[in-house]
Amino acid sequence: MEKQIVLLPGDGIGTEVIKSAKKVLEAIAEEYHHTFTFTVHAIGGSAIDSNGDPLPPSTVEACKKADAILLGAVGGPKWDQNPSHLRPEKGLLGIRKALDLYANLRPVKAFEKLLHASPLKADRVQGSDLLIVRELTGGLYFGTPSERRDDGKSVVDTLAYTRTEIERIVDKAFQCAQGRKKHLTSVDKANVLESSKLWREVVEQKKADYPEVEVEHLLVDAAAMKLITNPTHFDVIVTENMFGDIISDEASVLTGSLGMLPSASLREDGVGLYEPVHGSAPDIAGQGVANPIGMILSAAMMLRHSFSLNEEAEAIENAVQSVLDNGYHTPDLRMHNGQKAGTKEMTDLIVDHIKTASASTCIMSCYA
Ligand SMILES: NC(=O)C1=CN([C@@H]2O[C@H](COP(=O)(O)OP(=O)(O)OC[C@H]3O[C@@H](n4cnc5c(N)ncnc54)[C@H](O)[C@@H]3O)[C@@H](O)[C@H]2O)C=CC1
Ligand SMILES: CC(C)CC(=O)C(=O)O
Ligand SMILES: [Mg+2]
């Protein structure tokens, strides 16, 4: 298979972990006989520095032509005081909107070996396996007006959704639930917000189209509490943009680190951008210690969702699992035992495992 992949490293640890994903994909290409061609384009703070624009038109054009996109992370203190239109985050929001990537899938799975890396009690975390389906192109991050008023004495942000925008993300979540444990939790603030009342109405209406899926509604404050007190209660969670942003960082605590979580941002036709859930982590950038697993698992999601390469995606996931099972982990995972590894070492261990596993599969099939 031949595929064109656009890499958007961005800023901070984004530039470090994207190298890991590329290395892993190169190993997959070699072992499974695919041709992946990578081109690098600017986004975020580094694009402000190079092009005076957090999302240069050339980046958007390249992304539109690509078979899939991998993004590291954007942002950093250097650009924090910039005016809103020159913030790195505008680049990320801009590419999501430009490609209509409305469905953000954020799987959260507690690895057995890392149960003690979570500050939560291991017996609570054990067996956690949930999927957050976050609406990604509407809500507060995109509403207008969003501005200071009265010489800075007041301010307004706007939370707007159309029924159609809610319907398509709710449909996506029901479809995900159908392929999993058939339990859907819709998270909103329908006791206060009009937008949430419409959200709940749409979920109730869509229920009839997916009779096998059990549906519940939770208010976001209670959902945040239940997510860490009873995480195995959840299968698929569907929620609007900002609630999804917040509860997914919270859910990462189940895995031991924000650096573990991957994501896929999808358009209706399957076009996708894949990125870890974390940001540019300025506190550890440049030290070679960033956890590459969220980024590497995002590359696996790319293989599965954009290229239908399920076996190859599984090869990456199995390699990650094995390296963790062998006791290796980056320093963000607070473990009492095991072997600490940096970004490059973790990546090389994962690559080695992919190569060894593929070689042994070949030997077994040759003798079969
Ligand atoms: N998708 C994106 O590009 C995102 C960008 N940001 C931006 O990133 C910058 C920093 O934001 P923060 O609030 O600090 O969030 P962050 O996600 O960058 O970091 C939060 C904490 O988690 C740790 N962490 C995150 N990823 C890690 C990894 N792979 N390995 C080890 N530790 C990891 C960091 O060291 C930090 O202590 C800001 O400019 C923000 O706007 C934030 C979230 C998402
Ligand atoms: C620019 C932010 C909305 C990025 C973020 O925190 C996210 O998508 O998780
Ligand atoms: Mg976030």
TrEMBL record:
GO terms for cellular component: cytosol. The keyword Magnesium applies. Its EC number is 1.1.1.85. Pfam families: Iso_dh. It is found in: Cytoplasm. The keyword Nucleus does not apply. NAD(+) binds at residues 76-89, 279-291. Its cofactor is Mg(2+); Mn(2+). It comes from the Bacteria. Keywords: Amino-acid biosynthesis, Branched-chain amino acid biosynthesis, Cytoplasm, Leucine biosynthesis, Magnesium, Manganese, Metal-binding, NAD, Oxidoreductase. The record marks Y141, K189 as: Important for catalysis. Mg(2+) binds at D221, D245, D249. GO terms for biological process: L-leucine biosynthetic process. Pathway: Amino-acid biosynthesis; L-leucine biosynthesis; L-leucine from 3-methyl-2-oxobutanoate: step 3/4. Substrate binds at R96, R106, R134, D221. InterPro entries: IsoCit/isopropylmalate_DH_CS, IsoPropMal-DH-like_dom, Isopropylmalate_DH. Binds 1 Mg(2+) or Mn(2+) ion per subunit. One of its GO terms (molecular function) is magnesium ion binding. Residues 4-350 form the Isopropylmalate dehydrogenase-like domain. It catalyses: (2R,3S)-3-isopropylmalate + NAD(+) = 4-methyl-2-oxopentanoate + CO2 + NADH. Homodimer. Catalyzes the oxidation of 3-carboxy-2-hydroxy-4-methylpentanoate (3-isopropylmalate) to 3-carboxy-4-methyl-2-oxopentanoate. The product decarboxylates to 4-methyl-2 oxopentanoate. Belongs to the isocitrate and isopropylmalate dehydrogenases family. LeuB type 1 subfamily. This is 3-isopropylmalate dehydrogenase. It comes from Falsibacillus albus. The lineage of its organism: Bacteria, Bacillati, Bacillota, Bacilli, Bacillales. The gene is leuB.
